[in-house]
Design brief:
Blueprint: E1 17-19, E2 22-24, E3 33-41, H1 62-76, E4 81-89, H2 93-105, E5 110-114, H3 117-126, E6 131-134, H4 141-144, E7 151-153, H5 158-171, E8 176-181, H6 185-200, E9 204-210, H7 221-228, E10 236-240, E11 260-262, E12 267-268, H8 280-291, H9 297-316, H10 321-328, E13 335-336, E14 342-343, E15 356-360, E16 363-368
Parallel strand pairs: 3-4, 3-5, 5-6, 6-7, 8-9, 8-10, 10-11
Antiparallel strand pairs: 1-2, 12-15, 13-14, 15-16
Helix pairs in contact: 1-9, 2-3, 5-6, 9-10
Amino acid sequence: MRQISRCLLPAVAAVLVYAGGVCATPAAAQGELQVRIGYLAYSPPSGPLLSNVIPEPEDAGLRGAELAIVDSNSTGRFLKHSYSLEVAERDDSAGLLAAASELHGQGLRLFVVNAPAATLRQLSLALPDSLLLNAGSADDGLRHSQCLNNVLHTLPSRAMLADALAQFLAVRKWTRWLLIKGPSEDDLAYAAALERAAKRFGHKIVAEKAWSFDNDQRRSAQAEMPLFTQTAEYDVVLVADERGDFGEYLPYQTWYPRPVAGTQGLTPTGWHKTVETYGAAQLQKRFEAHAKRWMNDRDFAAWLAVRSIAAAVSKLRGSDATAIRQLALSDQLPLDGFKGRKLSFRSWNGQLRQPIPLVHPRALVSNSPQDGFLHPSSELDSLGYDRPEVSCDLAGNGT
């Protein structure tokens, strides 16, 4: 198990002590509240890629959590709150469960999790008295019908991403879609989210095609992609290729000269380098100084998870996992996520409400929800599963 061997504090004069796996400062002996947060990470091997896409950083998520510890200590020292991060990264689900149980035995009850949905479910069952913040799985089932009582979500769901894109396409009147989906379970889940969004916002899928080729498109895209995308006329090509096997080769290679959107092309995402407004540029700079790379959506979700815990601890003057969960689901914990709106958790499924940037690799195109898409309580609830659509009610308020 890898643990951060020092408290992540801002640049202030402090003598750090590390003993027995616990970070502390001299103030700890003077009644300082120690908040220990576990970071649990497991990423299954993706297998060989058919394209030469730039791989996701191996430390995606962790660096965001680390920066949030620094930020939380910067503000927490005035309240005599001290935050530390204890990291367990494993290359298999069983190993991560064992590491989580060990941290639980050491007294940890607050965890940020960057793992697939199946592993998150196992962790939820194994740690029933703990609070888990999901910063790694976009699975819609976790927000729709298989909600976990002790889990909150800071990473946007696939439904939120698809709805954000569908709203923008509706504004542009690009309503006829060609949908191309890959063969993996994740690709099919993303495609299902797009199909749901099409019905929700009045789009028509004129054709749906499954990508079944197993060849590298670097040398053959110019010949194969136009023929593959030949069908009834469409306004935009929607692609569901989360691994990046073929989607990168669709732009500028389609039968009709049309834009590409989805997992490639115009992409909805929780965070991106091109987000700079509402103070985001300062967060980006601090992250780049810390991690020596750009901040991505997993980093931002983990940053938000730790900052959510810190905001609750500041309000409660305590770190009890049950109390933090109840506060988060009460709509009394507004959070600043550098997105121009106060963020909050949905009481029915624990999903963090947040605007969704729409980007291409070098520019921010738009943010959803789009103007004109209204909602009785919050426009942010026009993205993803709204209360009447789900069978979950984590706060127990009824529907």
